[in-house]
Design goal:
51% helix, 2 domains, five-stranded mixed sheet, alpha+beta
Length: 333
């Protein structure tokens, strides 16, 4: 019943074929709940993707402004976690490169300071009449100028090699002859130091496609370093052997070994760093050189598609062996 113009009229009932009212209301409520749930799921899904992206953008802005410590916390989907890991690796590489740049500038400044101070002090003494322009004083100044020249040349060579811009004069190279030339070049220096310089290449060696001047420079750096750290009565050996693979030679291993003081195992991974020196050879007076010889050797070997490493028991008298492997062609293997 319902009222119409003050009169009670009977309720006509539902329209034939329409669902009952008590069905419609629950369906409407369920639909509303479903819509709210879908909306909330959409918001959560959007936040799942936009939050990691916004964090990555903030970290990228921080990197652009010079904050190389910025990192992105891993989160979100697997794709975003992979992306953030790649981003963080890139940021770490930038941070490491920046630290290496600062260290290199500090090392170069340190290496330049000593010869410049000697040259400046002696020139001022000559000007003021404190020193006489004797051959001894002039030779001293010339030696310090040569040190500066070697340092500049080494830095230039190392920079070109690491940038992949060092031109190589590749040709077929007789490895046995190269080793013999290196031994002959350092024979007098070894004799004066009372050190035996031996050659160990017992088997026929295949020719290498390499730059003979650069490869000779590598072996020269290794022999110089070995002679410096080997006492009188010791021995330095320059050797080579085939590197077998599937019944045929894949490359050649070259090495220089000594019976010197050895290298502590914790320092083996650092000896190819620029300007790194062991504790016993940090002084310029001890003839330590520029500290770039092994770094240059590593860069030149890698420019030929090879690799280099060092081994040492770390005990006095046990010595050190520095090896490098070169492919038979310039293609890395």
């Amino acid at each position: 019943m319902f009222l119409f113009q003050g009169r009670q009229l009977p309720y006509p009932g539902p329209v034939p074929g329409s669902p009952p009212l008590n069905w419609i209301l629950p369906l409407l409520g369920l639909g509303l709940l479903l819509a709210l749930a879908l909306r909330r799921a959409g918001v959560l899904a959007a936040r799942r993707y936009t939050l990691p992206l916004s964090e990555t953008m903030r970290a990228a802005d921080a990197l652009a402004e010079g904050d190389l410590s910025a990192r992105v916390p891993e989160g979100g989907s697997e794709e975003f976690r992979h992306f953030t890991r790649s981003f963080n690796r890139m940021a770490e590489a930038l941070d490491t490169a920046n630290r290496q740049r600062r260290d290199l500038l500090a090392d170069v400044a340190h290496e330049l300071r000593t010869p410049l101070a000697v040259i400046q002090g002696n020139l001022e003494g000559l000007r003021d009449g404190v020193y006489q322009a004797t051959p001894e004083h002039l030779d001293l100044l010339l030696d310090e100028a040569h040190k500066l020249g070697r340092l500049v040349d080494d830095l230039r060579l190392l920079t070109l090699a690491e940038a992949g811009q060092l031109p190589l004069n590749l040709q077929m190279l007789d490895v046995s002859q190269l080793l013999a030339d290196v031994r002959d070049a350092f024979a007098c220096q070894a004799d004066e130091a009372g050190i035996e310089l031996a050659l160990d290449a017992p088997e026929p060696l295949p020719p290498l496609v390499a730059d003979p001047q650069r490869l000779g420079q590598v072996l020269g750096n290794l022999v110089t370093n070995a002679l410096r750290h080997t006492p009188a009565g010791g021995a330095v050996t320059v050797g080579a052997e085939n590197l077998p693979g599937d019944g045929v030679a894949r490359g050649v291993r070259l090495w220089v070994s000594d019976t010197g003081e050895g290298i502590p195992w914790e320092d083996l991974s650092r000896i190819f760093d620029r300007f790194w020196r062991g504790d016993l050879s940090r002084s310029h007076d001890a003839g330590a050189g520029t500290g770039l010889g092994l770094a240059i050797a590593k860069s030149l070997i890698e420019a030929h598609g090879g690799r280099v490493w060092a081994e040492s028991p770390g005990l006095p008298g046990e010595g050190t062996t520095v090896s490098c492997v070169l492919p038979l062609s310039t293609t890395e293997f």
